[in-house]
Amino acid sequence: MRTYLDCIPCIIRQSLDSVRFMTSDESVQERVLREVLKATAEIDLKQSPPEMAQWIHRRIRFHVAQADPYREVKDQFNQMALELFPAMKAWVEESGNPMETAVRLAIAGNVIDFGVNSRLTTDQVTASVKHSLSDALEGDIDHFDAAVSSAERILYLTDNAGEIVFDRLLIEQLPRGHVTVAVRSYPIINDATMLDAATAGITEWAPVIGNGSDAPGTILSDCSEEFLDHFEHSDLIISKGQGNYETLCDVERSIYFLLKVKCAVIARDIGCAMGSLVLRHHQGTFQE
What we know:
With 288 residues, this protein is an alpha/beta fold. It is 50% helix and 11% strand. It is built from 12 helices and 7 strands. It has helices spanning 7-22, 26-41, 49-64, 71-94, 98-108, 122-132, 141-150, 163-171, 194-200, 225-233, 242-248, 264-270; strands spanning 137-138, 154-157, 179-183, 208-210, 236-240, 255-260, 277-282. Helix 9 links the parallel strand 3 (179-183) and strand 4 (208-210). Helix 4 (71-94) packs parallel to helix 8 (163-171). The longest helix has 24 residues, at 71-94.
């Protein structure tokens, strides 16, 4: 997905929110904001928003001299999600349609996105969980279930820490031995890394690989050979979150996008209302 004009003020707002989250030093905040303003004036609108975000957060981490400035909040939301996990797992197991319930809950976890909302509260997460079980699901769960059943190699692209615990509910519904899970190789905002996958218990269930990148999405040109091999040879790709949608929605592969719509630009691009639970099948030229 290209960067739209409406993305520009959002990029600037997110940059200021992020640097304020990381430091109270106003001189650092001003320095970062001035760099971002200069960069956005020259941005290539053909790029996806996560490409700009990657550059911005590299600059912020440089100025605040922290490799993983969101580590504390990632640990906090991982723990919160783990406390919810036993009850959510019971809901899946007791459901008349475990796959649909797991999909709904996995999407509910996508609200844990500090790139969009750096002031997220645990109450907002529990509300998202509650509403996910009754809100309309924009997508065909039967088609998704059939695709899972017939797949030999599944690649699951995670998004954020905390959310990755919700992902475990869905990953455990996938055929064991057929799934590889991918995380970010390096810290970026509150996106999940290998540490978060281990904390969520996913490393005990399926192989987990890093994608080689520190972008808040999946920029294929920035990913490792190992990841690209899995991406090219998996017959089912499940992609979580807005950043992965923004970077992969134009890629010529068959991909299921799972996300909660939290941005008006993405709502318009997908054709769904803000707040929608989306299970969208993107059919690239490799689709049978």
